Amino acid sequence: MKAVQYEKGAAAWGWVKDVPKGFVVSVGVLELVGALGLILPEATGIAPALTPIAAFALAAVVLSGALFHLFRQEYREIGINVVFLALAVFVAVGRL
Q1: Transmembrane segments in this chain: where (predicted)?
Q2: Model pLDDT for residues 14-66, shown as the tens digit of each residue
Q3: 1 vs 47, 89, 95, CA distance in Å?
Q4: Which residue range(s) make up the domain with 48?
Q5: Residue 24 resides in a domain
């Protein structure tokens, strides 16, 4: 939603209105590319070594999001970041 439906994101999340549209779209694109990087290398058998790299990169994006919400004192938003961070690290370590 962040990457392709900015208006819905602005309505759903209060923080979207406080940052530039380009930032929100960039984060959405990074998350999509990270998700594809988790799935495609293993699914296709082409360069499966990229899967843990994508997982660590996605973990960095999610950690940045958690820190963003922490600094804004949006503690309720951090929970999903922690879950996605744990999943990304689990995949990264499991694929190493």
Answers
A1: 21-40, 46-71, 78-94
A2: 788 888 989 989 999 999 999 999 999 989 999 999 999 999 999 999 999 99
A3: 28, 23, 28
A4: 6-95
A5: yes
Cβ-based neighbour number of residue 24 at 10 Å: 20
Q: Half-sphere exposure (CA, 13 Å, Cβ side) for 16? A: 18
Looking at the structure of the chain, the number of domains it has is 1
Model confidence, pTM? 0.86
Position 58 in a domain: yes
Instruction: Give me the sign of the Cα torsion angle 12, 37, 45, 82.
Output: negative
Q: Indicate whether 1 belongs to any domain.
A: no
Please give the structure tokens belonging to residue 62. Answer: 């999610």
Q: Give the max Cα distance, the chain.
A: 42
Number of neighbours of residue 81 by Cβ within 10 angstroms: 19
* Inside any domain, residue 45: yes
